Amino acid sequence: MPDGHLMLVLHAHLPFVRHPEEPVFLEESWLFEAITETYIPILGRLEQLHREGVRARLTMTWSPPLCEMLADPLLQQRYRRHVGRLLELAEQEVPAKAHSPFAEAAVMYRDHFRWCLASMDRFGDNLLGWVRLLRDAGVLEPITCGATHGYLPLMLTREAQRAQIQVAAANYRKHFGQSPKGIWLPECGFIHGVDDLLREAGIRYFFVDTHGIYYGDPRPRYGVYAPVYTKAGVAAFGRDPESSRQVWSAEAGYPGDPTYREFYRDLGYDGEYDYVRAFLHPDGVRRNLGLKYHRITGKMPLHEKQAYVPTPAFATAMRHGADFVAHRVQQSQRLGALIGRPPVIVSPYDAELFGHWWYEGPQFIESVFRSAALSSLQAVTGSEVLADLPVLQVVQPCASSWGDAGYNGVWLNPGNDWIYRHLHIAEERMVECAKRFPDAQGDRKRALDQMARELLLAQSSDWAFIMTTGTTVPYALRRTRDHISRFTGIYEQVIGDRLDPSILPEIERRDSIFQEIDYRVYAGAQASARG
Amino acid sequence: MSPHELDRLTLAQLRDLAGRHAVADAGTLRKPDLIAALAKATGVSGGGRLPDSAAPGPAGSSRIEEQQKPAQTGPRQAEPGLPIPDRYGRDRLVLMVQDPFHVFAYWELSAHALEQARATCGEQGTPVLILHTASGTEQREVDLRGGNYYLSVAPNANYEAQLALRDSKGHLHPLARSNRVTTPAATVSARRDEQWMSVDDSFGELLEMAGLPNASGGQGSAARLSDRTRQQWTWETNAATAPAMFSGILPAEASPGGASSASLSSWHLSSASMARERDATAQRAAGAPAASASEPPKPAPGGDAANAAPDLGGFPE
Predict the structure, then answer these.
(1) Mean pLDDT of A286-294
(2) Cβ contacts (< 8 Å) between B150 and chain A: which residues?
(3) Cα–Cα distance for residue pair B72/A417, rounded to 1 Å
(4) Is A506 annotated in the active site?
(5) Which of A384, A427, B12, B25 could be joined to A160 by an S-S link, Cβ 3.0–4.6 Å?
(6) Which residue does chain B place closest to A217, by CA atoms?
(7) A213 vs chain B: nearest CA distance in angstroms?
(8) A451-486, pLDDT tens digit by residue?
(9) Is A449 a catalytic residue?
(10) CA–CA separation, A455 vs A15, rounded Å?
(11) Alpha carbon A463 to chain centroid distance?
(12) Among A28, A37, A187, A427, which one carries the catalytic annotation?
């Protein structure tokens, strides 16, 4: 019997950033950078482990907006163009940096961009094919999320919460051909009653933050080291605080190692302007290009940073992965003695932190699985845990999130509270329409379906989050207002029985998420089951 | 805010932000240095949510005190995006939970509703926000034009609110009534009784293999049928060993106080249908031990909070 079970969980999500109205749109680079630096490296390393016969088990959210973007032909084509340009640059860089301390990094970038394009070729431009392949191999358990990462605890109506979950489950079936077993509740936002909605969608498990379990009722016998069942019979996993600290601690955390790549030195800023100009956004403003040639080195001004050399950096990542596992083994033995059974250690992270921010993060993940396979820890997925532990304690988790301070304050504060008077009305109006038109056809159905898309897009917790953090606020304001405005416009026409179908094509073209949607999901449990 | 997001700001926006965070030499730093300085000044060490937000921490200095600020109900000039309504013409009051200690109230009132209330009031009246709690009501005078208000409350309790006009005799004339909210718990539960459950969804998987709709978003009666049958429960109650175990795993800061001894569950299978499901599961278990032959939880090997806490400690951070 292993000393413990390690459940590594990555949450991959980006808001739906697709802008067909412009040939190049800055925010789409969020997706492109994440594909290049996070998704492809992680999928590639999982596949490598599988080919070598090393046990790897990763539970990973692929949020519905992310799936929709990865499967979208326009964004696929734009991603190819994006990486193709980077490859052009990297091919110039290799001779330019030859015989310099930067030579190894230059070759690494060129090879990596080539690999990105080859991966697109291999999966017919849709990287979800890779996810399905690894799922079928048993190493990756893809789970879903709220339809648009809407923050459930701050929704007014149960119908709106249900729609976030049902639309997500339907979208998962569209991309993965089966029902989701698990869900990452957006921002780990749990509130009583959500578990009933998960059960209604056939979902077996979800996650809450540490205090969501510890403050649950009644007291959880095993703390966060075994899942619990809610009264609805859905399992809740709680986050292990120790493994998060180990990675992110300001003093001892791994990503600050001097050999690792420095995020803030980028060719987009460092290169001669005339040399890099052609590879920047058409507005010509210097921004990150993703080719970074310096390492963290130490605490010093950026211009004193030394050359980045990949080989020792990746060796450090391997060492850090082994260190992480060694600590989890010790932790498991300690916990095992305390609770009388092997603990389940749940270590969840935002996926995009690995690779994009912590460049060597995917290598670290590989190392965690390699080290775990040689240790007394067993890597497991959510489903495997539930299969192994048929009887769980019944605990109702406390309403909570993994946001700062642990509750709703990140998404409800004076910086963003004004959005809810609009979102709540839209929820009520959507429910009103779904009940009033139980069987709409033709243009009216198109209009109601598009209203559902606009409401869902407006609900993305990303917008409220950005308003709180104070960065890229204009874009978050614009997205919130655009979706509320389009929703309101269509609603007034539908409810006034004066629908002008000519307004629909342009809106449908812009906000094209969830082509499969059926607005009747807002009519309530009974009615939507008829759909 | 993450460095990733900072990166997307213009130099001018960054300098503005740097000014607000008192970053030295903000006017002369290059963009990457400015981002690094800002990331440091704002306490961000990572690229996303985790470093700051993964662990629940004590309320920071930005904690919102009870306050009222002018509402932003609609479009302001020069804000990006399409126009949105200022008002929706519905008289309403909505309560929202911010955290265990704060709720947020927002409202919209038509001139007509206000006039009516004034008419029954017989005078201008003083607008008040009334908070209904388990122990009674609290009143606060509010500026109706403000449109919202943050209120201090207690954890793990139910709240409702009302907007009203108070006349000179102290009588209240209602304007709007809110929804009911429950604030989250902010500490461990006093309840130590335990129930144990198993959920068997093999029937659901059989349905799926047969190509029939599963419990979700399915079609008509098949969905309801599967919903009834795919999950079956067994229950065990085991309260005897709970307190020692829990005190062992619980960090020191949150060590058990509250209720004294484990009491048997107030939980029971009330409905006949659930009891039937339990019997069905028990029968199946007899034939297929692997499905539900569960190991009962082992008793604690003498858990000791004082010894355990340093190792497990740190929660809540």
Answers:
(1) 97
(2) 414
(3) 9
(4) no
(5) A427
(6) B189
(7) 9
(8) 999 999 999 999 999 999 988 899 999 999 999 999
(9) no
(10) 14
(11) 15
(12) A187
| Unique residue bearing structure tokens 């001892």 | A252
Whether A375 and A35 have beta carbons less than 8 Å apart is answered as no
Phi-psi region of A271 (alpha: psi -120 to 50; beta: other; left: phi over 0): beta
Nearest CA in chain A to B84: A485
Q: Are A483 and A148 in contact (CB under 8 A)?
A: no
Task: Name residues whose C-beta falls within 8 Å of residue A111's C-beta, 6 or more positions apart in sequence.
Answer: none
Enumerate residues 226 to 245 of chain B having a beta carbon within 8 A of any beta carbon in chain A. 227, 230-231, 233-234, 236, 242, 245
Closest CB from A215, A390, A410 relative to B187:
A215
Alpha-carbon distances, residue A325 vs A41, A336, A368, A374 (angstroms): 21, 16, 6, 10
Q: Range with the lowest mean pLDDT among A307-321, A361-375, B105-119, B261-275?
A: B261-275
Helix (H) or strand (E) holding B93: strand B92-99
Distances A475 to A20, A415, A466, B1, B11 between C-alpha atoms, Å: 16, 15, 9, 15, 17
The verdict on ipTM greater than 0.90 is: yes
CB A355 within 8 A of CB A349: no
Q: Is some CB atom of chain A closer than 8 A to the CB atom of B108?
A: yes
The phi and psi torsions of B82 (rounded to 5 degrees) equal -75, 160
Residue B307 sits at the vertex; the CA angle it makes with B305 and B308, to the nearest 5 degrees, is 65
Question: Using CB atoms and an 8 Å cut-off, which of residues 296-335 of chain A contact chain B?
Answer: 301-302, 334-335
Contact A141, A379 (CB under 8 A): no
pLDDT digits (tens, 9 = 90+) for A402-450: 999 999 999 999 999 999 999 999 999 999 999 999 999 999 999 999 9
User: CB pairs below 8 Å between A and B: how many?
Assistant: 331
Pick the closest to residue A64 from A12, A133, A8 (CA basis): A12
* Tokens at A464, concatenated: 């409220």
* Tokens (6 digits) for A484: 């509320």
Select the residue of B31, B53, B69 nearest A402 (Cβ to Cβ): B53
Q: Which of residues 456-485 of A touch B (CB under 8 A)?
A: 465-466, 469-472, 474-475, 477-482, 484-485
- The Cβ-side half-sphere exposure at A412, using a 13 Å CA radius, reads 27
Does B3 contact chain A (CB < 8 Å)? yes
Could you give the 3-state DSSP secondary structure of residue A143?
Answer: strand
> Taking a contact as any Cβ pair under 8 Å apart, which residues of chain B between 195 and 214 contact chain A?
195-201, 204, 208, 214
Give the residue from chain B lying closest to A522, CA to CA.
Answer: B217
What pLDDT score does B79 carry? 73
Residues 263-282 (B) with a CB less than 8 A from some CB of A: 267
Q: Count Cβ atoms within 10 A of the Cβ of residue A38 and give its class: 0-12 exposed, 13-18 middle, 19 or more buried.
A: buried
B308 vs B157: CA distance, rounded Å: 32
Q: How far apart are CA A163 and CA A147, in angstroms?
A: 8
- DSSP character for A225? S
Closest by CA to A73, choosing from A515, A458, A517, A519, is A515
Question: Does the global pTM surpass 0.90?
Answer: no
SS3 content of chain B, % helix, strand, coil (to 5): 30, 20, 50
Does the CB of A402 have a partner CB in chain B at under 8 Å?
A: yes
